[in-house]
Design brief:
This protein is of the alpha/beta class and 266 residues long. Helices cover 42% and strands 17% of the residues. The chain is built from ten helices and ten strands. The strands form two sheets. A seven-stranded mixed β-sheet has the order 1-2-3-4-5-7-10, with helices on both faces. Strands 6-8-9 form a three-stranded mixed β-sheet. Helix 1 packs across helix 3 and helix 5 crosses helix 6.
């Protein structure tokens, strides 16, 4: 598999670069000088990257340049001047509830497409993954982390709540009580604990992070695409179904796969 940094860019703007190597796409956060701090422009670029993926892509890797995956929201968002060409968060707060809801919903789109059933997404996380950075990593299906990783949900310390779609996967992964404790205290979750409680699928030395992600991507590509898509859909829906409903969903999915293998697909 080609190196993550050796391909021509499909998209390269506002701190986000998208490259595609056949069935593997790589989305890289490209502002290491600011520890890949996030902004509305970056979120729009992430959303655009998701929309630009060719149909051949089966695995998407999310990574950050430099020592940190993402240190979270750029604090400039909370200054009166905000970002150039953008309303500050303080200005947004003065608008109507409907307008504010629509803006946050737009921001959330950058964090949602990673869970599409036709893709498997892998976050390669090193250093800080704080606030919006933590939520972006949580948006992916799988997380491989370096030994120096530090996850933290710091929104409550700012008088805010995590609102970039991270609360649902966090509770699903670690349970309500631990998710509440992590969010309410804002403390760091480091590599050993992240693996133990289910936040990380694998912990590796920092110098092995890219190689381990490539190995996992290759393993995911070894299985037939339609079987992976059906399996992901089954697993994602399991928590919302009863045991009997899940049994029924399994039968229906298997019937589709068998008919397809027999050349009898509808």
């Amino acid at each position: 598999m080609t190196s993550f940094d050796s391909l021509d860019s499909v998209l390269d703007k506002d701190g986000v670069r998208l490259t595609v190597d056949d069935a593997v796409a790589t989305v890289t956060l490209t502002n290491p000088a600011k520890r890949n701090a996030q902004s509305p422009a970056l979120w729009r670029a992430l959303t655009e990257a998701g929309r630009m993926l060719p149909g051949s892509v089966r695995v998407v890797v999310l990574r950050g340049e430099g020592k940190s995956f993402s240190a979270g929201l750029d604090r400039q968002a909370f200054t009166p001047e905000g970002f150039d060409g953008e309303p500050s968060f303080l200005d947004l707060a003065r608008g109507s509830a409907e307008e504010l809801d629509a803006v946050i919903a737009e921001y959330q789109e950058a964090f949602t497409w990673w869970r599409r059933n036709d893709l498997v997404s892998i976050a390669a996380v090193q250093g800080h993954a704080i606030g919006a950075g933590f939520q972006l990593a949580l948006g992916c299906d799988l997380r491989i982390v370096a030994q120096d990783v530090q996850f933290a949900m710091r929104e409550t310390s700012l008088g805010l709540v995590p609102d970039l779609t991270g609360t649902h996967p966090l509770v699903s992964l670690v349970g309500y009580a631990r998710a509440l404790e992590i969010c309410a205290t804002g403390r760091f979750v480091q590599a050993e604990e992240a693996e133990r409680i289910g936040l990380a699928n694998l912990v590796v030395p920092a110098e092995e992070l890219d190689g381990s992600v490539r190995d996992l991507a290759a393993a995911l590509l070894a299985a037939p695409r339609d079987a992976v898509i059906e399996t992901k859909a089954l697993l994602r829906g399991a928590q919302d179904r009863t045991y009997e409903e899940q049994r029924k969903a399994e039968r229906a999915a298997q019937a589709r796969r068998l008919r397809d293998l027999a050349g009898l697909a509808d």
